[in-house]
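Hi both,

Apologies for the delay on this - the queue was longer than expected. I finally got the adenosine-5'-triphosphate-bound model through. Below you'll find the protein sequence and the ligand SMILES exactly as submitted, and right after that the C-alpha cells for the full complex including the ligand.
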Amino acid sequence: MRVTKLSLTNFKPYATAEIDLRDGVTVIHGVNGSGKSSLLEAVFFALYGSKALEGTLDDVVTNGTEACEIDLIFTHQGETYELIRELKRSGERVSTRKCVLTGPDVTIEGARDVRTFVTELLRMDAEAFINCAYVQQGDVNKLINATPKQRQDMIDDLLQLGVLEEYRTRAGQARLGVEDVLGNTEGALQNIRNQIKTKEDTEPYARLNNVENELSDVTTRIENYEGEKQKAEKARDAAESTLSEYEEKQQRVASLTESIDGIQNQIESTAAERSTLKEQSTEHRAQIQQLSAQADRLRESLSKEVPTANIIEEYEQQLTENLDEIREKREELRIKQSAYKNQANALSEKATHLSERAETTETEVETLQEEIQSVTDQIKEQKERLETLKTERQSLSSRFDAAPIDSGSASSYVKEIQTQKEEQTTRKAELSATIESLTDAIEETEHLLAEGKCPECGQPVDGSPHVHDLSDDRERLSEYQRKKAAIEEKVSSLTTELAEAQKLVETESRIDEIETTITLLTERIDELAERRSQKEHQLNTKQDAIAEYRSQAESVSADAQTKQDQHAEVTAEISAFTDELSEIESERDQLTELSEITERQTELEERIERLTEKRSELQSRNDERREWLKQQRDERESLKEAVDERAIESAKEQKSNAEQYLEQVTEMLTQLTTKRDRLTSERGEITAEIEQLESLNKQQTQLQQRVDALSALRSETSDLESMYGEIRATLRQQNVETLERMVNEMFDLIYANDAYSHIELDGEYELSVFQKDGERLDPEQLSGGERALFNLSLRCAIYRLLAEGIDGAAPTPPLILDEPTVFLDTGHVDRLVQLVSEMRGFGVDQILIVSHDDKLIDAADDLVTVEKNPTTNRSTVNRADKPALSALQVQVGDD
Ligand SMILES: Nc1ncnc2c1ncn2[C@@H]1O[C@H](COP(=O)(O)OP(=O)(O)OP(=O)(O)O)[C@@H](O)[C@H]1O
Ligand SMILES: [Zn+2]
C-alpha cells in the first residue's frame, strides 16, 4: 500500500494543503513547528480516525475554525482508494460529519466501518501500525520496554498468528461445551437407570398375569348371571302384559260409564229445552190475537176502508203526496206572507220618514221667518240712524255759509290768523320799547332844560340849537302811542277771529266723521237687504218642499195599508192549509200504526214457525242419542263378561316372584361388575407401568448412544484445540528464528561496533544483547543512541518479516520515520541512509521520513518543504524534485 495524494483543509496548522507522494524515499523538511509531523499524523488519522489520536478530535481542527477535511488517496494491490473525513465543531464538541471510503466496487460509510475495512485491508489496526510502520518522533523505547508478553502479542498480531490463537480458543470453548452436554447426558442416563430399577422391583409382569386370571373368572360368572336375569325379565314382562290388558279393559268400562251418564244428561236437558220452546209459541199466539183486535179498532176510525195491507200502503202513499203538495203551497204562501209584511213595514216606515221631514222643514221655515223679521228690523234701524246723520251734516255745513272761508280750508285759515297775531304782538312789543325810551329821553331833556343845561352836551343852554327838538319828540311819542293803540285793537280782533276759526276746524272734522259713517251704514243696509232676499228665497223653496213631503206621505201610507190587507189575506189562507195538514197527518199516523201491527203479526207468526222447527230438530237429536246409549251399554256389558279373575291372580304371583329374583340377581351382578371394573383398572395401571418401563428402556438406549457420540466429539475438539496450539507454537518458533536472524542482520548493518557479537530472541520473545566476551545485556542497559539504533533495527526487522510475509502476499504500508536521526552521530546517520536504501531493496515501495539531515535529504528521491507563515500561523507544503544545496544548508543550520 502507498499514499499517492493527501489534501488537507483546516487540519492543525494547515489552512489548505495538497501534496502528491510517489514511490521511493520522500524526505519532509522544514523549521521547528512548521507542520512536518502534522503531515504524517494526517495520513495516520485519515486511515484510523480517532484511534490514531492521543487526544480528542478537537485537537486536529485548526483553532478558530469550524470544520476540517482530510482527503487521502492511496493504492493497494493495484487498486486505488479514496478516503474522505470531515469533522465539524458544534458548540464544545467536535464530531465526524462524514467518513467515506470509496474503492473499486466498494463504498464504505461511517467511521467505524471505515476503520474496520482499513484494518482488514492493511491487516493491522492503529496500534499495530504504530508498532510496525510508523516510527513516531522520539519513540525509541516502546518496543524495548515492552514485556515479552506484549511483544509476543504484538508480533503474533502482525503476523496473523492471533487468528490461530482465536481458533484454538474457539476449539477449547467447543470442547467445554461438549463436556457440559456430555455431563448432563450422563446424569440423565443414570437417572433413567435408577427409574428402571425401581419399576422392575415391583414385578409388574407377574402382577399382570394374576389380575388377568381373576378377571376371566369374574367375567364368566357375570355372563351366567346375566342369562338367568334375562329369563326372569321375560317372565315378569309376560305377567305385566296380562295385567296391563286387564287394566285397559277396566279403564274402558269406566270411560263408557262416564259417557253413558253424559248422554243421559244431554237427553234430559234437550227435553227441557223443547218444553220451553213450546211455551214461547203459546205466548206468541196470544200476542197475535191481541194485535188483531187493535187493528180492527184502527180500521174503524179511518175515513176510507182499507182491508188489506197493500191498500194501506197505497193510501198512505197518497196521503203523503197530498201532504207534500199542501206543504209546498203553504210554503209558497209563507214566502208571500213575509214579503207583504216586509213591504208594508217598509212603506209605513217611509211614510213616517216623509212626515218627519215635513215637520223638520216646517221648523226650519219658522226659523227663517224669524231671521227675515230680524233683518228687516235691523234695516229699519240703520236707515233711521242714516237720516239723523244727514240732518246733522246739513246743519254743520250751513255754518260755513256765514264764514269767510269754504269748508275744507279751516286748518290753513287758523294758521294764517295765528301768524298775523304773532306779527302784531311783535310790533306792539317793539313800539312799547320805543315809547318807553322816547318817554325817558323827553323826561331827561325836560329835566336838563329845567336846570338850563343843553340836553345834548350838558352845557349851559344859552343859545342852544337843540331846544326846539323837544316838541318833535313829543309829537313822535303821541304818534307812537296812537299806533300802539291801533295795534292793540288789531290784536284783540285777531284773537276773536282765531277762536272762530278753531271752531270751524272742529266742525270740519265732525262732518268728515259723519260722512264716513254714512258710507258704512249705506253698505250695511245693502248687505242686510241682500241677506233678507236670500232668506226669502230659501223660505219659498222650503214651503214648496213641505207640501211635496206631505202629499208623498199620504200616498205611501195608502200603499202600506194595501200590503197590510194582502198580508192578512195570505195569513188566513195559510192557517186553512195548516188545519188540513194536521187532519191528513193524523189519518196517516193511524195508517202507520195499522201497518206496524200487521208487520208485528207476521213477525210473530214467523217466530212460531221457527220454534216449531227447532223443536222437531231437538227431537231427532235426542233419538240419535238414545241409539248411542244403547250401543255403549251393550259394549260395557260384553267387556264385563270377558274378564277372567283366576288368570289375573296367577299373573300377579308370577310377576312378584320374577321381581324378587331380579332383585337378588342384580345385587350379585353389581358386586361382580364392581370387582371386574376394579380388576380392569388395575390391569390398566400395570400395563401403563410396563409401557413406561419399556419407554425408559428405549430412552436408556438412546442416551447411551448419545453419551458415546459426545465422548467421541470431546476427544475430537480436544485434539483440534491442541493442534491449533501446536501450529501456533511451531509458527511462532519459525518467526522467532527468522526475526532473530533479521534483527541481527539489521543491527549489524546499522551499528558498527565491535563490542557486540549478536542479539538473541528466545521462544518467549525475550530480547538479549550479547557482548563479544559472551556477557549478556538487557537492551535497556544500552546507551540512548544504541537504543535508537536497536529500536530501528527491530522495527525494520519486523517490517521485513511482515513484508516477506508468511505466504508472501502481505500488505506493506509506507515505512514512516519521524526524526530518526535525533540520537545519532554522523557515522550512524550514514548507516541509517544505507539502512533506508536496504529497506527499498527488501521491497518497501514507499518510505516517508521527516528529517533535517543533509545526508538523508541527499538520499531522497523527493523533497517536501514545509513552511509556516509567521503572520497567519498557517503552514504550506511544497515538493521539490531536486533540492538546491544552498537552501538545504540553511535548513540544516536551523536545527
Ligand atoms: N489545532 C491546531 N490549530 C492550529 N495550529 C495547530 C494546531 N495543532 C497544532 N498546531 C500548530 O502546529 C505546529 C506543530 O506542528 P508539527 O508538530 O507538525 O511541527 P514540526 O514541523 O513537526 O516541528 P518540529 O520540527 O519541532 O518537530 C505548532 O506550531 C502548533 O502550534
Ligand atoms: Zn516534528
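Main takeaway for now: The pocket of adenosine-5'-triphosphate (ligand 1) is lined by residues 12-13, 30, 32-38, 59, 62-63 (CB under 6 Å).

I'll put the files on the shared drive as well.

H.
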